């Protein structure tokens, strides 16, 4: 179904027509949004929208009668090969632009708005959080503005050996953030059980938990390539850490075939 949705999306909105990578990403986003239970006419707040990969699918799903407010703490010049500002401008010029309001350099906890939303989405952005307490604070505020939280992240509980490389890469990059101050996209490896506990601590209850196939995405290989690069920078770390990193680095490749981790989805109310 998600492949068909992608083709309909390209035909209707004239976006990503010659971008195979983006089309593959869209396929997964449609699967996530379907799992979230987003419906036509909904008013949605997306936190951590990035370049808008999930945003455009949300906007397509809610239709002309719905709306998506998409925020990100990053500045407009962040990101590659297109900056966030460039990616958002491209989307705004399409038919979807009327359904979306992008707000960059925006901290959710500092937003001066009491507006209520049908759903709040955090999709593949939690690993950017430097502090678990901050993510918990987000969940607590979400409860005050919406009756539905839709959350997605990589599932570290991999099921196939071909996903091991992505697991090891994520582990290396999380340790790298511990030993080296950086703004990389992996600061904390929040998993299902920890997210579930945070949701409960915020006063919500998990209504749905499901795994969504993501093995075909390019992200796993991207993370593996970056992890291989930064693994050389642990020379100043304790010997025990160096040994651990080397073991992870040795497991990055599985007979030349690497696949991405799947995603887990949690819907809480």
TrEMBL record:
Gene3D superfamilies in UniProt: Vaccinia Virus protein VP39
Example GO BP: methylation
Keyword hit for Heme: no
GO molecular function, one term: methyltransferase activity
UniProt keyword terms in alphabetical order: Methyltransferase, Transferase
Translocase among keywords: no
InterPro entries linked to this entry: CFA/CMAS (IPR050723), Methyltranfer_dom (IPR025714), SAM-dependent_MTases_sf (IPR029063)
Domain of life: Bacteria
Residues annotated as domain Methyltransferase: 38-203
Name of the protein: SAM-dependent methyltransferase
Organism: Jeotgalibacillus malaysiensis
């Amino acid at each position: 179904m998600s492949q068909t949705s992608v083709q309909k999306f390209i035909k209707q909105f004239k976006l990503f027509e010659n971008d195979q990578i983006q089309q593959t990403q869209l396929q997964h986003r449609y699967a996530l949004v379907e799992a979230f239970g987003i419906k036509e006419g909904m008013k949605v707040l997306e936190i951590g929208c990035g370049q808008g990969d999930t945003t455009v699918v949300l906007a397509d799903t809610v239709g002309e009668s719905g709306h998506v407010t998409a925020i990100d703490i990053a500045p407009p010049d962040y990101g590659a090969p297109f900056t966030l500002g460039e990616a958002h401008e491209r989307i705004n010029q399409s038919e979807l632009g009327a359904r979306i309001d992008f707000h960059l350099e925006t901290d959710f906890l500092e937003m001066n708005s009491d507006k209520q939303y049908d759903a709040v989405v955090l999709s593949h952005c939690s690993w950017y959080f430097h502090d678990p307490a901050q993510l918990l604070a987000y969940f607590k505020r979400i409860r005050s503005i919406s009756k539905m939280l839709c959350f997605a992240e990589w599932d570290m509980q991999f099921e196939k050996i071909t996903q091991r490389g992505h697991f090891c890469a994520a582990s290396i990059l999380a340790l790298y953030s511990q030993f080296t101050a950086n703004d990389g996209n992996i600061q904390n490896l929040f998993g299902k059980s920890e997210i579930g506990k945070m949701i409960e601590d915020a006063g919500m209850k998990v209504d749905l938990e499901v795994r969504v196939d993501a093995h075909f995405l390019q992200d796993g290989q991207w993370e593996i390539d970056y992890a291989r690069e930064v693994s050389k920078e642990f020379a100043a770390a304790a010997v025990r850490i160096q040994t651990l990193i080397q073991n992870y680095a040795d497991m990055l490749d599985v007979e030349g075939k690497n696949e991405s981790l799947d995603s887990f989805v949690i819907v809480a109310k």
